[in-house]
Design brief:
Immunoglobulin-like, alpha+beta, single chain, 2 domains, 2 helices, 221 residues, 5-stranded antiparallel sheet, 31% helix
Length: 221
């Protein structure tokens, strides 16, 4: 069932800022009290040098302004995080294509999108299970551009493999033997959003997709 995972606990940054401002305020009040007392009881024939007091007051004011600036920045960050979270929730029930190499194999079917920056005269396509063991390999030439790779869920020995998470890896070389840059993308319908970490995570059939890795979003068919 689609849902939203519990959000993580509130950070301590806000509390730390409040504590710092309270400490600075108390110290500033104490400083003014001492300064006032000394000025009242100073020797008229040998007055106190107020330059040092003035410099300290400027320093206190500077620290206070910096703390206020930090609070404003924190407020902006929280506003952006709220917008980021709302965007993530809107993905529930949507079909997404995201950069990543892991997808769910069901009913003997798994599908990835892959891309190459140039033609590859030779390449090795490797599929691994969730434990990292190689279950299928294929050698073939690949054309540049974006393509779809479909797998029938069978291992190199032709036997059908159990459903679960599988990853696709491509090593490609040009006709001159130079390495060809590649990328892989996975597809699926978002059923859960997890806010436990620093970045919202979209859950697709158990696969975890960082929101920042999403490349395409469309209505679920």
């Amino acid at each position: 069932m689609a849902g939203i995972a519990p959000a993580s606990g509130i950070g301590t940054t806000s509390n730390e800022l409040k504590t710092s401002r309270k400490t600075i305020g108390e110290n500033f009040d104490t400083f003014l009290s001492i300064l006032t007392t000394q000025l009242k009881n100073q020797n008229p024939l040998d007055p106190l040098d107020t330059n040092q007091f003035t410099q300290q007051m400027v320093q206190f004011t500077g620290v206070e302004q910096q703390l206020k600036t930090n609070e404003y920045l924190e407020a902006l960050i929280k506003a952006n995080e709220g917008s980021f979270s709302s965007q993530a929730v809107s993905y529930i029930g949507k079909a997404i294509t995201a950069f990543g190499d892991t997808t769910e194999m069901k009913d003997n079917k798994a599908e990835w999108t892959y891309g190459l920056t140039t033609d590859a005269a030779e390449s090795t396509i490797t599929i691994k299970n969730a434990a990292g063991a190689v279950v299928h390999t294929e050698d073939k030439a690949l054309a540049k551009g974006e393509h779809t790779y479909k797998w029938d869920g069978k291992g190199s020995d032709g036997a059908s493999l159990p459903e679960g998470q599988y990853s696709l890896h491509i090593e490609a070389k040009s006709a001159e033997g130079a390495k060809v840059n590649t990328y892989t993308m996975t597809k699926g319908i978002v059923d859960t959003v997890d806010f436990a970490g620093n970045e919202p995570i979209l859950i697709i059939d158990g696969a975890k997709i960082p929101l920042s890795s999403v490349g395409k979003v469309s209505l679920a068919s």
